[in-house]
Amino acid sequence: MDAEVFLTYSSVVPEDVRDQTVVVIDVLRACSTIVTALDRGARAVLPVSDMAEAGRIAANLDPDVYRLGGERDGEKIDGYHLGNSPREYTQDAVDQRDLILNTTNGTRAFTRATEAKHLVAGCFLNAERVVDFVRTVDDEVTIVCAGSRNRLALEDTLCAGLLLDRLWAHEKPTLLTDSAHTAYTLYRTDRNDLSSALRTTNHAERLKQKGFGDDLEYCFRTDALSVLPYYSDNRLQRYQRPQ
Ligand code: MLT
After folding, report:
1. Distance (Å) of CA 22 to CA 36, 62, 188, 210, 217
2. Backbone phi, then psi, for 240, in 5-degree steps?
3. pLDDT, tens digit, for every residue of 54-69?
4. Which atom of ligand 1 has the smallest separation from the CA of 74?
């Protein structure tokens, strides 16, 4: 399976993703939050790129039915119902509701990839579900790591490497792009002590300092949930296999 990897979303232009099968990865924490919200019964997650868009969408929804979630600098946005800690997204908080999610990098990455043929959210929590989906629908994949403030985020790169390692379990392409090679090789180097590599990334350290250390334990659980968030009509919903 051929693969391209973008190590941050910020350089992605529509031609990079048009008609491709695209996986957006933001391990800490947007994609982990999206997977969790859908697992706990949210009807849909609407990823937005800024406050204005979030406000516009909210103004058109029944206030009983939507929840606004998101962060700036890791902290809940003033006036929002929820922050961006996946552990806040309990069944009580989101069941049968639409979630408008506004984060610094992760939700913006989705807004760059809307021209994709298939667009899904990936993280450690749902890694196998993503791999299974990609194998079923295509023989090539484009992975867009959200990264952090235009820079590589190691936890996203390692997650991309894990997906490639599984996708290439039977046959690794002979020619790799440099960024796919980087993600794959980093994962293969760190996989025997993945837990230490993940817990010391820059963003993991920032979250620990802010008191979100428990989010790391939560987000780094590989294959804990089998939810596949699938993007269509400006929203991510649980993917249902066509009958
Ligand atoms: C983001 O989208 O930048 C992240 O999800 C930030 C965070 O950890 O809340």
Report:
1. 20, 31, 22, 32, 26
2. -110, 125
3. 999 999 999 999 999 9
4. 9
Q: Measured in angstroms, how far is the CA atom of residue 84 from the centroid of ligand 1?
A: 7
Sign, CA torsion 138/140/141/142: negative
CATH number at 2-234 = 3.90.1560.10
Q: How remote is the CA of residue 105 from the centroid of ligand 1, in Å?
A: 6
For ligand 1, residues with CB inside 6 Å are 26, 28-30, 71, 74, 84, 103-106, 146
- Whole-prediction pTM value? 0.97
Nearest to 126 by CA among 235, 3, 33: 33
Distance set, CA 112 to CA 16, 18, 61 (Å): 10, 10, 24
Ligand 1 centroid to Cα of residue 171, in Å, is 34
78 alpha carbon – ligand 1 mean position (Å): 16
pLDDT at 243: 67
Q: Domain spans of the chain? A: 2-234
